[in-house]
């Protein structure tokens, strides 16, 4: 047996094969590369959309059913998880979130736009990923307008369906204006309607008699006619699943991360060694969770689902288990491979639970800031979703809090919005960089402190009368803790890059992970 390497545009494939004439022909490009033996796909966090599209384009026959995915962080380290389903679902969530941002227009419902750098192969690759996600995990991009997807699947739809989708395609201000005009035309300022119609290059002047027909024709134009090329590309790839989708509307309703659907997806575990699910205390905490879900918005509910299952849609039931945990270590734990949420049973009241909830808004917003997130990931090797994958004791938590406070203070003091982000923190295509204000020796020192768990941590004694300093960093007790199952934990679960049966999409940075 010999090791064969086949190179293409942006991918490296390695597989085991016996030396033969066919192998030599493949190496010189006369025979297409065989990709059925690939069992691992390496993707880079933040580039999953581009890398998956490129993978499908160049290796269309790749079998995802028996393939695992490994995600590489911006600092070059692999995420602490092995793919038993959770990593694949998380990759799908990032892929479609990036797709909505880069390739669509609309608010509640979105429609693909024509891009000069996206041809038939790119759109067919996206449709293939849609098909793979649906067949393997029942994941479906429900933010795409249903009538557009009906067109892609060859299903019928009504003019009223297009109108309803178009209202959700509009921003809230325009949606309210159009709805009011449809109900009572005289109540709406005619100049505002003309401005809206002019936005869509309408040739009609809106009036009471023609307004409904006018809006329906605009809806047809925006949702069906403009993305017609995209729908044709999708249609050829989605034939395989069109027969399995009997009721498209039902799929949209079931997958939607509404409060009702999320609560219905929760299942209490029957066996918890440390805390029975039947006790009054655990029932009270379960009630806190239900109340929190009811009060949260869609963004938080999607983050909660992704924290528990890897998917930001309702593709699985979520098992809820109660554990003994208190102090700094008290935080919810999500096991995305088994769709398990572990909740500490020591919350005194709902306010305390909400501060320590599975998706704290302050930290969520903080990590949505790309500049902050880059530093946290690249300098400290931390990510929002798996900050708690390390089982911190109190002394380790204090060290981490001190290190994070130092970096947060440095970032806050030195950030200059006028400086391009790629120059300050290093985009993926410019290599990994740390802020100039943070010495590399200090980085190494703190990294060493974080990795050394055997050295006890002692707080310096405070002098009499000296006031305790207030930490400017957010409290670590409210951070997420997201773990995979114990059997897929640790460095022993990883294989070195370059082993047979492994596919790597190289990062576009100058630094190779």
Automatic annotation (TrEMBL):
Residues 459-470 have a biased composition (Basic residues). GO terms for biological process: regulation of signal transduction. Residues 441-456 have a biased composition (Polar residues). Keywords: Ubl conjugation pathway. One of its GO terms (molecular function) is ubiquitin-protein transferase activity. Residues 121-354 form the HECT domain. Residues 441-513 are annotated as: Disordered. This is HECT domain-containing protein.
